[in-house]
Every structure is written in structure tokens, then in C-alpha cells.
């Protein structure tokens, strides 16, 4: 399994579907401007579906490796989480 990251940069909600071996299946609605962190087998594929007037429309299909989180992205996310925790704590007296 590998960590993956998808950011919905569209103005509409999309459905992320990840399909892999051994009956692996993940489906998640991702809202506009939302970032979704997920785990998936290395040989999976990702599909992004958009809503259309007559149902869902396949917008994009790619290998999961295109969404794999790099070490730099992992460190940046960790720093952002730490910063948000520090900002949310009251100042020491």
C-alpha cells in the first residue's frame, strides 16, 4: 500500500474511484477545493468521475502512482498539521 493524495481543483464535486487487485475498491466524494489522502495498492488505477445531467461522466483515468505522496509532500503535510495544532493552542502564561 502507498499513500496517495488527490486535490479537487474543479468547481464541482467529483467521485474518486480507486480499483486494485484482490477486490480492492475505494470510492469517495471529493468536494471542490478538498484534498483527500488515501492508501491504495501500488498497481491500482484511479478514476475521477464528474456529475453530468444524465449521470456520472468519466473525467480522468490514471495509474495510482501519479497520486503517490513524495517524501517532500509528506514532510510539508506534517509541518502544516503541527502548525495548525500550535496555532490552535492558547498562549502559555
Give a quick set of tags describing it:
single chain; 93 residues; alpha+beta; four-stranded antiparallel β-sheet; two-stranded antiparallel ribbon; 6 strands; 44% strand
Helices, strands, pairings?
Blueprint (H helix, E strand, L loop, with lengths): L1 E6 L6 E6 L5 E6 L4 E6 L4 E8 L2 E9 L7 H18 L5
Antiparallel strand pairs: 1-4, 2-3, 2-5, 5-6
**In what range is the share of β-strand residues?**
35-45%
Radius of gyration: 16 Å
Task: Identify the strand order in the major beta sheet.
Answer: 3-2-5-6
| Number of helices in the DSSP assignment | 1
Morphology: flat
Q: Kindly state the mean pLDDT as a whole number?
A: 85
Helix content percent band: 10-25%
Give the total of beta strands: 6
Distance N to C terminus: 45 Å
The unreliable regions are none
Order of helices and strands: EEEEEEH
The secondary-structure class comes to: alpha+beta
Sheet bearing the most strands, described?
A: 4 strands, antiparallel
Q: Can you characterise this structure?
A:
The structure is a single chain. The chain has 93 residues and is α+β, with helices and mostly antiparallel strands. It has one helix and six strands. It has one helix at 71-88; strands at 2-7, 14-19, 25-30, 35-40, 45-52, 55-63. The strands form two sheets. The chain has a four-stranded antiparallel sheet with strand order 3-2-5-6, with no helix packed on it. β5 (45-52) and β6 (55-63) form a beta hairpin. It is flat and about 45 Å long. The mean pLDDT is 85.
Amino acid at each position: 500500500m502507498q499513500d496517495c493524495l488527490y486535490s479537487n481543483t474543479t468547481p464541482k464535486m467529483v467521485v474518486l474511484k480507486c480499483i486494485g487487485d484482490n477486490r480492492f475498491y475505494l470510492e469517495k466524494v471529493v468536494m471542490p477545493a478538498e484534498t483527500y489522502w488515501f492508501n491504495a495498492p501500488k498497481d491500482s488505477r484511479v478514476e475521477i468521475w464528474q456529475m453530468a445531467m444524465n449521470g456520472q461522466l468519466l473525467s480522468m483515468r490514471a495509474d495510482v502512482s501519479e497520486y503517490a505522496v513524495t517524501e517532500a509532500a509528506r514532510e510539508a503535510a506534517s509541518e502544516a498539521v503541527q502548525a495548525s495544532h500550535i496555532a490552535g493552542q492558547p498562549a502559555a502564561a
